[in-house]
TrEMBL record:
Family, per entry: Belongs to the TMC family.
Name by which UniProt lists this protein: Transmembrane channel-like protein
Chain segments carrying region Disordered: 1-20, 654-675
An annotated GO cellular component: plasma membrane
Amino acid sequence: MLRQWSVQASGEPEPEPAGEELWEQEMERLCSSQEPVRVLPYAMVDKRFIRQLREPEGVKTSCWQQWRRRQQTAGRRLGEAARRLARGCGLWEGALYEIGGLFGTGIQSYFTFLRFLLLLNLLTLLLTTSFVLLPLTWLRPPDRGPALNFTLQCPGGHQPQTGVPKFNNLLWNVLTGRAFNNTYLFYGAYRAGPESSSIYSIRLAYLLSPLACLLLCFCGILRQMVKGLPQKMFLGQDYRSPLSAKVFSSWDFCIQGQEAATIKKHEISNEFKVELEEGRHLLMVQHQTRAQRACHLLTYLRVNILIGLLVVGAISAIFWATKYSQDNKEESLFLLLQYLPPGVIALVNFLGPLLFVFLVQLENYPPNTEVNLTLIWCVVLKLASLGMFSFSLGQTLLCFGRNKTSCESYGYNACDYQCWENSVGVELYKLSIFNFLLTVAFTFLVSLPRRLLVERFSGRFWAWLDREEFLLPKNVLDIVEGQTVTWMGLFYCPLLPLLNSIFVFLTFYIKKYTLLRNSRASPRPFRASSTIFFFQLVLILGLLLAAVPLGYVVSSIRSSWDCGLFTNYSAPWQVVPELVALRLPPPSQRILHYLGSHAFSFPLLILLSLVLTVCVSQSQASARAIRGLRKQLVWQVQEKWHLVDDLSRLISEPGSGDSLGPESPHSRGTLHNLL
C-alpha cells in the first residue's frame, strides 16, 4: 500500500491501527479518481504505485500504450518549454520589464497596450491580405476600360472635379496621399468583373473583411478587458491587501545580476508608494465631515463643467475647420487647407489633456481617481472630435443636411467628388500621417531641447521648468485616436493597418526614449489594474465609433459611379442578396430569409433576455456568497482570538491580573470603549 511505500522510503514507524480506515479510504479515492497522477501531491515513487493500482488486475500495459504515454509526456514537456521560450523571447519583454521596474506597472501598462495594438493591426492586415489582395492578384482584375458616358446634372454648368491643384513635389504627394490614388491603398483602385463570371467573389470578401476585422478586434479587446478588471470590483471597495504580504513575498530570490536587483527594488518601491498613497487618501475620506464632502462635491462639479465647456469649444473648432477646408479649394490656400482639419484636431488633442490634467491636479484627488477622471474626459474629447470630423465629411461629401441637385439625384455630392470613398480615405490617411509626425516632432523638437536646456542651465526658472512629466492620459489619447482612425478607414483605405502597424512599432521606441531620457517619473504613482481596464474601455468605445458609420455607409449610402467595386449597386450591401440568389439553392435562401425576418428576431430577443436574466441572477447570487464567506472568515478569526484569550487565562497564574497570551482586536476594542 501507499503508506508502506512511504514508510520504507522515510524509515519512520507505521501509523497506528486507528489510521487504517483513513488509509483505505484514501486509496479507494485515489483508485477511483480520474484526476491525473501528475497533479497529485505525492512523491514520484508514490505516483508510480498509484498508476499501477489504477491498472486493471491481470492486464498488462501494452507497448503501444506505454509508447503513447511517453509521447504524451514528451509533448506536454515540449509545449511547456515552448511557452516558456515564447514568454522569454516575446516582443519587447526586456524593455517592458525595465520600464515596469523603473517607473511602475502603470506606465508599463501603456507600453503593453502598444504591443497589443500592434498585434491587432497585424491580424487585421493578415485578414485583408489573405481574403482580398491575394485573390485579387491571382484573379487579375479586368482593365478599367473606357469612361462611362454618364452626364451629371450640376447646377450652373458646374462640372465635376477631376483633380485638385497640382504640386510636382513627391514628398508632398506622399504626405497628402495623391501619390497612391491609383494603388490598392485606396478604395478606387479595386475592380472586379460580374459576379456570375467568377467563382470567388472579391466584392463579398472586400465587404466582409472590415466587418470581420472589427468583430475579431472587439473579441480580443473584450478578452483583455475582462482579464484586466480591477480586483476591487470583485472584492469590494473596502478590501485592501495586507502590506505584510508585499514585505515578505515581493522579492525574487532567483535574481543574481545587479541591474536586475536594482529594477526589482524600484518595482517594489513603486508598489509601496501606490499602497501608501491610497491608504492615506482612504483615511482622509473617512475623516471628512459633511461640510467637507459637500465642498468636495461642488469642486468636482465645477471642474467637470469647465472641462465640458472646453470640449464643446473644441468640437465647434473641428466642425468649422473641416467645413472650411472642404468648401474652399483655392490654389493659393491649398497647402494650408490640406492639413487644416488634422492640424486643428491635433491641436485640440494636445492642449485638451494638458488643460484637463491642470484642472484636475488643482484638487487633491488620489492618483487613480485623477488618472481615470482625466482619461474619461480625454475619451469624450477624442470621440467627440472624431465624430464631428466624420459628420463634417458626411455633410460635405454625402450632403447631410444639405439640398443639392447632385445629392438628390445620385445620393452623394457627385458634382464635386466623383469618387467620394477615395476622398474619405485620403482624409483619414492624412489624419494618421499627421498624428505620427506630430509625435515625432514633439519628441525631438520640444521634449529633447527642454531636457538639454534644463541640464545645461541652473536657476529658479529652470528648476521650475524641469523635465516634462510623462502624462499617461495624453499618450493613451494619441495612440487610441490613431487606432480609431485606422478602423474608420478599413473600407476606404484597406491597407491603413499596415501604415498604423509601422507607426505603432516606431511609437514604442520613441515613447521609450522620451520616458527614459527626456521625462521624469510621476510623483503620483497609480495601480496598473484600473488603468488597463480603462485603456481597453477607451479602445472599445473607439471601435464602436468606427463601426457605426461604417455600418451605415455599407447598408444605406450610394456607392460612387466612377470607381471601386460597387459602381452598379445602390449600396455595397446589395451584393449579398445578389450572391445569395446566384450561389445558394432555394432551401438555403429560404433559411437565410427566415433568419433575417421578424419571426426569428423576436424569439431570439426573448431567449437572449432570459439568458441575460439568468446571468444577472447568478452574478448576484455569487456576490451574496462572497459577502457571506467574507463574514464567515471574520467570525473564524474572531473565534480564534477568543480561543487564544481563553488559553492565555488558563496558563496564567491564579490571581494575577496580567495575561500572558495575546490580546484580540475585539477585546482591545471593548476595553477601549469601557475606558
